[in-house]
Amino acid sequence: MSDADLRDRWDRQQAAYVADREGRFCAILNVLDLQSAGRPSMVVDLACGPAHYHSGLERFPNARVVGVDHDPALLALAHEAGQSYGERVRFIDDDLTADCWTEQLRDNIDGAAVSAVVSTTALHWLTPAQLVETYRGARSFLAPGGVFLDGDHFHYDHRQMRLRGWAKQHDRRTQEEAFAEGAEDWATWWSQLGARPGFAELVAERDRRFANRPASEATTVGFRLAALAQAGFAEHGTVWQLRRRLRRLRSDMTTPVRQPLRHVAPLRARSA
Ligand SMILES: C[S@@+](CC[C@H](N)C(=O)[O-])C[C@H]1O[C@@H](n2cnc3c(N)ncnc32)[C@H](O)[C@@H]1O
Fold first, then answer.
1. What is the model's pTM?
2. What is the number of structural domains in the chain?
């Protein structure tokens, strides 16, 4: 199986766990387009994984992307994918929870004005305290007028029990549909990656790096908006959230759903 196959399978596997995953990439690119009048320059992708920037690079021929991640195996796939884009793409191996992660990034953007920082389905890996610091870090290198766009997928907790139950049901359905259509689950995908020549060591290193990662803690959209304000962003809000299947789910419920089923919101924040 080639690296390109593995990346395609990554996308299908991730889409099994993250309903409307493509929708958030599309929303992010649309905001980027509007914010930059169709010409974003430097974009930083936080926790980029194997990288899903191709559509952005194709759509915006002047854009450069710097991806940051701490998983050596996913970064190896990202490097492979980025080769055909030459100098337009760079990747940095860094831990977003480390104090100095912005320093290496600064060294790699060559003084360019960063018009946007983006992230998809990743920052829920951080604790709420780490999240605030990450936002602050992102804010520190955004050019005036730049945007931070986070297309995350985060969970409800005990504070929202009914919503949590419905969201779990919705997740289960999304997975059932995706697996029935041939998507792999997380464990199968990782075992296939580890079986690739040269990848066993990278996967072992990844496991070592993330072994003591604290368990994910649910955050609310309200918390994230407040954290963005705390980090110094001048304007913040929800530009998109999952709604597509809400009607179908609602018809199965005896109690009407009064709030969005799940907050999957690219959060927009203007830096100055
Ligand atoms: C579910 S994946 C999403 C990857 C990619 N953004 C995508 O949408 O396909 C979560 C990513 O967050 C990265 N990540 C988690 N914690 C991190 C940290 N502290 N520093 C850097 N990357 C981190 C993981 O390595 C992984 O690539």
1. 0.90
2. 1
